[in-house]
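in:
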């Protein structure tokens, strides 16, 4: 894999032939008059930023509960970092930057309070009714639950943005119609019955760079937050050759550098190395496949914007370290158990008495609905909560609320 710096799109001002074309979008579920000043993908990006769901991300957990400290990343700051990396990758590869940014900004809309802990707890509660999947919930939010416009529910995003949201991690169906990662969540199937997102094909390169930007962001910044928390140490990072090399480089250039600056110098080099690796791999892939359109990218049968084989090994090593040292740390697990109990308690309370969901627009229509429909709306309400709102609501409804610190 060789990075071709002469082929980079910085300042080129022209999309590649294989980039998604906002002026030839497959359109929206509900037809709208086009804007004379913004492309359809720009409008999608802008709509995403102005949602309630986007604002709520600032009080949703990434890894560490907000009560642990102001400097840890939230779901919002993580999302902004993903969007920055996705846009940089898109620019280098001469893709549509607005589409890549939009997919990055919307990719975590469906996350519950308390991060993956809340998702696991809500999935367990909803298992009898089809379970819970944060990606499917993101789609529900932008196609149904955001209620802002007079003529439709949701945001009425373009086909390309919705495709990127649903398929940024790859096809959901095999060519034979089998689920690639188990059954496809019902909310995705329901939407595709109205607006087919072609679940058996790969997504655009813009969606692919948004997906790998997510990995780059959390691989790097979970290390940063782990060092800040004390769950990680520089000695632990030495166990991964890639990180050991970065630390040796920084020590050689800046002997005796204070820990905070030392950490930042490592992190910025890690992001740069991973971004350049993805660009080089994508360039090699594009030369091999030679797509002549965005449709050719979808039909290529492979991801073209991802890590090289060597960086993929490093990626696995970093994820293994993060999993064992942070995500499964005994103290983190204690907090996770308490957070899960809050979600479970609230779900059971709302199922027993939907009127407790104060202000939820659907409460007035809840009488006489099937149990599964009621459970799904309770799930919608819970998934939309921020950490703080879930904790405060639990305190109002129950005599004892577990400590999350």
């Amino acid at each position: 894999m060789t990075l071709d710096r002469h082929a980079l799109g910085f300042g080129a001002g022209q999309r590649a032939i294989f980039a998604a074309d906002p002026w030839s979008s497959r359109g929206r579920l509900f037809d709208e008059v086009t804007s004379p000043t913004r492309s359809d993908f720009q409008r999608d990006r802008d709509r995403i930023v102005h949602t309630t769901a986007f604002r709520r991300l600032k009080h949703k957990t990434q890894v560490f509960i907000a009560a642990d400290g102001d400097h840890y990343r939230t779901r919002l700051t993580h999302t902004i970092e993903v969007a920055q990396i996705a846009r940089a990758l898109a620019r280098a590869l001469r893709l549509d930057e607005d589409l890549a940014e939009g997919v990055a900004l919307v990719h975590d809309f469906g996350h519950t309070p308390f991060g993956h802990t809340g998702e696991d707890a809500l999935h367990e509660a909803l298992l009898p009714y089809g379970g819970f999947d944060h990606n499917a919930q993101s789609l529900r939010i932008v196609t149904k639950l955001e209620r802002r416009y007079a003529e439709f529910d949701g945001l009425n995003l373009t086909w390309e943005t919705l495709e990127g949201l649903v398929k940024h991690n790859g096809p959901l169906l095999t060519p034979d119609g089998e689920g690639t990662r188990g059954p496809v969540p019902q909310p995705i199937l329901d939407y595709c019955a109205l607006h087919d997102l072609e679940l058996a094909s790969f997504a655009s390169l813009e969606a692919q760079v948004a997906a790998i930007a997510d990995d780059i962001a959390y691989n790097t910044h979970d290390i940063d937050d782990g060092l800040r928390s004390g769950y990680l140490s520089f000695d632990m990072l030495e166990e991964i050759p890639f990180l050991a090399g970065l630390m040796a480089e920084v020590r050689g250039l800046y002997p005796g550098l204070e820990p905070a600056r030392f950490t930042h110098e490592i992190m910025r080099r890690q992001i740069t190395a991973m971004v350049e690796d993805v660009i080089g791999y994508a360039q090699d892939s594009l030369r091999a496949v030679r797509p002549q359109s965005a449709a050719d990218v979808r039909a290529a049968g492979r991801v073209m914007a991802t890590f090289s084989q060597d960086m993929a090994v490093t990626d696995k090593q970093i994820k293994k370290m993060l999993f064992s040292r942070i995500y499964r740390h005994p103290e983190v697990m204690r907090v996770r158990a308490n957070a899960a109990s809050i979600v479970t308690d609230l779900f059971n309370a709302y199922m027993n008495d939907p009127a407790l969901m104060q202000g939820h627009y659907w409460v007035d229509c809840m009488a006489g609905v099937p149990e599964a429909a009621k459970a799904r709306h309770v799930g919608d309400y819970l998934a939309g909560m921020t950490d703080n709102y879930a904790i405060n609501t639990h305190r109002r409804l129950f005599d004892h609320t577990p400590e999350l610190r």
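note: The chain has a mean pLDDT of 92.
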